[in-house]
Design goal:
By secondary structure, the chain is α+β, with helices and mostly antiparallel strands. Helices cover 44% and strands 20% of the residues. The protein folds into two domains: 92 residues, no CATH class; 249 residues, Alpha-Beta Plaits (2-Layer Sandwich), CATH 3.30.70.1660. The strands form two sheets. It has an eight-stranded mixed β-sheet with strand order 2-3-1-5-4-9-10-11. The chain has a three-stranded antiparallel β-sheet with strand order 6-7-8, with helices on one face.
């Protein structure tokens, strides 16, 4: 065998055993945040353990056959296939040992914002929001619209939605593992409903995706760093829809991050939802700062921290959807907008995994 992964695997096997013992302790589950973090890591390590056991069995079989081959021609004939199986198992083990994004099993906060293009951009932002809600439904995930600011024609200026998996056995199937590539500028080309001449216009909407914080303790927020304003909720056109100051705006002074919530009827509920989004944004900001300091350790090669990057075009006249990072192109835009995003998202996953494998081979 060309490479012996034994040494690299041993600490992971020990960690897997430790987590397994911890998850069997009922007191651990009293802290739901910790239990979720342990569960995500356990699911990730389970693949390493499985690949290691497969390799170990194949290695033992090949070694035993090599010892017996000198005495028995039948073992000698079987040896090449056993060695090939061992090498294949070793390669599979090396692949799962490549570190993956530790947040893959997390749920997400997804934001859609209208951009340049006026009402047409707001209508397109509404299309994107519905697309993600339908995609989540297809995946069996639950969704909660935390905030939505509608326009008079039925578009949205901005919206925030929490997307959660009901259970995660494999981090690769997590919400973040799929939606983390969606952040960036989404461009649309179509004839606007407000256009009387039938001319094709180009406009855009922005999408932001943040891994959700499981445990509020993960992100420390000093109450003295918060500026909290309350005001009356408003609907399309700016008219007041509430007679009490239930809407909440929270400004995190050190970073300048501002989160506003008005969907809920009570000030307390809006404050809780705003803090939920603020924690997710702060976690993302911390991770991006760390990635900027160690560019060679970026967990994703195509999930850019530059949110101004144009990542995808939706061309209605041609019924075409194209991802500019991966080269994916298909003429089934109507299907994608209906929530069938599997192919375009898989192209991003495959592109990223290929880049990580190449980087590992070079190291």
């Amino acid at each position: 065998m060309s490479t012996d992964p034994f040494g690299a695997v041993q600490p992971l096997l020990a960690e897997h055993a430790e987590i397994e013992a911890a998850l069997a302790d009922p007191t651990v589950h009293a802290d739901q945040g910790r239990a979720r973090r342990l569960g995500r890591r356990y699911a990730e390590l389970r693949h390493v353990v499985g690949a290691y056991r497969t390799w170990k069995q194949a290695d033992d079989d090949a070694e035993a056959a090599a010892e017996m081959a000198e005495l028995d021609p039948d073992f000698a004939a079987e040896l090449p296939s056993l060695q090939a199986a061992r090498d294949a198992a070793a390669e599979a083990l090396r692949t799962v040992l490549i570190p993956r994004d530790p947040d893959d099993g997390r749920d997400v906060i997804l934001e859609v914002k209208a951009g340049a293009g006026g009402e047409e951009s707001a209508l397109f932002a509404g299309d994107l929001l519905r697309m993600y809600l339908r995609y989540a439904e297809r995946k069996g995930w639950s969704t909660q619209v935390l905030e939505e600011t509608a326009t008079d024609l039925g578009g949205i200026k901005d919206a925030q939605v929490a997307i959660k998996a009901k259970s995660i056995q494999d981090p690769a199937e997590g919400v973040w593992a799929h939606l983390k590539y969606e952040g960036g500028v989404h461009r649309v080309q179509r004839v606007p409903v407000t256009e009387t001449q039938g001319r094709i216009h180009t406009s855009a909407a922005g999408v932001l995706v943040f891994p959700e914080v499981d445990d509020p303790g993960e992100v420390e927020i000093d109450p003295n760093d918060l500026k909290i304003d309350v005001y009356r909720s408003s609907g399309p056109g700016g008219q007041s829809v509430n007679t009490t100051d239930s809407a909440v705006r929270i400004t995190h002074l050190p970073t300048g991050i501002v989160v506003s919530m008005q969907n809920e009827k009570s000030q307390l509920q809006n404050r809780e939802q705003a803090m939920r989004v603020l924690r997710a944004r702060l976690l993302s900001a911390q991770q991006e700062a760390a990635a900027a300091e160690a560019a060679d350790l970026r967990r994703s090669q195509i999930r850019t921290v530059d949110r101004s990057e144009r990542i995808r075009t939706y061309n209605f006249p041609e019924n075409r959807i194209a991802d500019h990072r991966t080269g994916y192109k298909a003429y089934n835009l109507d299907v994608a907008l209906g929530g069938d995003l599997d192919a375009v998202i898989q192209s991003a996953i495959d592109h990223d995994e290929a880049a990580r494998l190449a980087a590992a081979a070079e190291s």
